[in-house]
């Protein structure tokens, strides 16, 4: 099993190899002039939901838009650090409230229009004015980065932070410690909130970081903030911050002037959108792509790309074996052995996602803290990771992957059937049914086997006496929207894949919708997250993040389950694939021979 670089498949794990120093080659001719253009045929587990990156919130959509669009800041494939993208350079003011971007010259959109400062400003203006129903769809774009519609949270009172127990019970020593820490956290926050947290007026909510943007000249853009936002440059690598052709941002209905992007995306990326029909998205190499050196460094890049949707992992495996496709994403543990035995190339990604079990407090039983705690004790996270995920996947004790180095809270709940049963007995639970939703006909990087994962969790819950009512929902029937609606109040499986290397991506990405997804609100958590977002790397920031994890551990809106390793599989005609933990995988970096037959 190989990571990054491709060669003959072995059981050894190899690290990602760089392509630096590769000899220059001439730019490939247009696909239309080739008798047999190199075509990369990939299979994903679900079709894209939105081809407009400003509205998308799923990895299958971003899989396509990352090829068609580009962002101001790109990601170094070897280190994950931010590097020049559509912006050649940038500077940050000393107070962190002004960023100046120097844009790349000689870039054109797929419709032939010029990329310049006005184009960047036009995209910002569109993001700022997105109607709320549309903005709520997005998870890795402007709203996620700038928290534009959020309002300044109010600090909780001491009384609101007091922990409660069932009538006649007393706080345990563990609960008293947690309460003391919560009150100490409040005192720290009071000091910060005593000053002015944001400056100037906002065109959005009172806690929006966005102050304004302007084209200083044709190739210079100045961005102004209302409060320092640590990690802003890294956040600009998110696919939802992609720059679309200005001509495509107007002409649609008032509710969405950029409606054409849903069916005809237009960016500056290396591939042009051709069609989305019969379950296959087709792309072709953009002859006018600006980065000629990148094209020349890899003369074996795909000239055409076809991404099909095959929901079953076993059907994806069969299609690969029959050479109907060149590769597929989301390899599950139960087909790994078959792939290895058949000398298929498996490319592994480092873990940068988390699977969790959501618990909606609008449910009568899930509203009880001890019931949620019993569920957390009932689940054997280690067994789940070992049985249903690729080797190297780890049980999760928090929502932050280990790569961030933030320690788990000391009182993290561990697997204990006896403790779970004792808590349930104290609540007087008599086996009332709890609805449990899980997705059908899909595989996610954080959830390759949804049905089997549900089954194992249901078995864990049954062991301690919790009865569940299965609620399977097809992913393409709006699974995420349904579990976040007021009509569903139960348990559910979901996860989050990180888009850039900063903790707030996970914290905001998972918890910004907490009221809808978990029936959970917390003045303390909102205040903690706001403060942590402006702290530079160091002990103070780590302490602030530990405080956030402690709040989540006490309130338990969700149970973190697994930090999964995900993987792709390929036939031998794909000789290199640029795997990325953040899924920032450009097909222009893929190296191919012409066909599986030619490489065998």
TrEMBL record:
Residues 82-511 form the Solute-binding protein family domain. Gene3D superfamilies: Dipeptide-binding Protein, Domain 1 (3.90.76.10), Dipeptide-binding Protein, Domain 3 (3.10.105.10), Periplasmic binding protein-like II (3.40.190.10). InterPro entries: Peptide/Ni-bd, SBP_5, SBP_5_dom. Coiled coil: none annotated. Transmembrane segments: none annotated. Pfam families: SBP_bac_5. The keyword Transport applies. The keyword Nucleotidyltransferase does not apply. Keywords: Signal, Transport. It comes from the Bacteria. Belongs to the bacterial solute-binding protein 5 family. This is ABC transporter substrate-binding protein.
């Amino acid at each position: 099993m190989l990571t990054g670089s491709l060669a003959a498949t072995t059981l050894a794990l190899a690290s990602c190899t760089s392509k630096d120093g590769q000899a220059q080659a001439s730019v490939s001719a247009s696909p239309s002039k080739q008798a047999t253009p190199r075509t990369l045929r990939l299979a994903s587990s679900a079709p894209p939901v939105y081809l407009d990156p400003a509205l998308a919130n799923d990895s299958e959509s971003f899989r396509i838009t990352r090829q068609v669009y580009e962002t101001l800041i790109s990601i170094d494939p070897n280190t994950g650090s931010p590097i020049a993208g559509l912006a050649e350079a940038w500077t940050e003011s000393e107070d962190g409230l002004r960023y100046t971007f120097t844009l790349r010259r000689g870039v054109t959109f797929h419709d032939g229009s010029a990329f310049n400062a006005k184009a960047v400003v036009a995209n910002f203006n569109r993001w700022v004015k997105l109607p709320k129903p549309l903005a709520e769809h997005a998870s890795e774009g402007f709203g996620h980065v700038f928290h534009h519609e959020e309002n300044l949270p109010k600090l909780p009172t001491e009384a609101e932070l007091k922990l409660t127990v069932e009538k006649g019970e007393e706080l345990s020593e563990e609960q008293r410690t947690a309460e003391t820490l919560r009150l100490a956290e409040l005192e720290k926050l009071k000091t910060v909130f005593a000053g002015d947290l944001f400056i100037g007026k906002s065109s959005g909510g009172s806690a929006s970081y966005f102050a304004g943007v302007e084209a200083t000249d044709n190739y210079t853009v100045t961005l102004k903030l209302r409060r320092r936002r640590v990690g802003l440059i890294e956040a600009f690598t998110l696919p939802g911050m992609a720059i679309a052709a200005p001509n495509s941002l107007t002409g649609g209905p008032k509710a969405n002037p950029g409606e054409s992007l849903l069916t005809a995306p237009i960016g500056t990326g290396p591939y042009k959108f051709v069609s989305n029909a019969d379950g296959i998205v087709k792309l072709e190499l953009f002859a006018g792509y600006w980065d000629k050196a990148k094209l020349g460094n890899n003369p074996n890049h795909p000239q055409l790309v076809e991404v099909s949707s095959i929901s079953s992992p076993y059907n994806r495996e069969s299609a690969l074996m029959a050479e109907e496709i060149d590769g597929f994403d989301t390899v599950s543990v139960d087909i790994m052995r078959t792939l290895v035995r058949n000398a298929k190339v498996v490319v592994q990604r480092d873990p940068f996602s988390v699977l969790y079990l959501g618990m909606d407090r609008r449910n009568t039983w899930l509203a009880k803290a001890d019931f949620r705690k019993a569920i957390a004790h009932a689940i054997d996270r280690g067994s789940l990771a070992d049985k249903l995920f690729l080797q190297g996947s780890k049980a999760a004790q928090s929502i932050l992957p280990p790569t961030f180095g933030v320690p788990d809270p000391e009182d993290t709940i561990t697997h204990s059937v006896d403790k779970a049963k004792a808590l349930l007995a104290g609540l007087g639970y008599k086996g009332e049914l709890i609805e449990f939703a899980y997705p059908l006909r899909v595989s996610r990087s954080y959830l390759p086997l949804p049905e089997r994962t549900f089954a194992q969790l249901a078995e864990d819950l049954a062991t301690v006496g919790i009865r569940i009512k299965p609620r399977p929902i097809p992913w393409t029937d709006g699974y995420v929207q349904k579990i976040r609606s007021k009509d569903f109040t139960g348990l559910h499986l979901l996860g989050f894949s990180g888009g850039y290397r900063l903790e707030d991506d996970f914290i905001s990405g998972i918890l910004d919708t907490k009221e809808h997804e978990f029936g959970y609100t917390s003045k303390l958590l909102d205040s903690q997250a706001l403060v942590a977002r402006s702290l530079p790397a160091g002990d103070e920031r780590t302490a602030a993040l530990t405080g956030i994890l402690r709040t989540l551990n006490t309130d338990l809106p969700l149970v973190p389950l697994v930090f999964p390793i995900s993987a792709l599989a390929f036939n031998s005609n794909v000789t290199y694939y640029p795997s990325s933990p953040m899924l920032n995988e450009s097909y222009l970096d893929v190296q191919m021979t012409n066909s599986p037959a030619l490489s065998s």
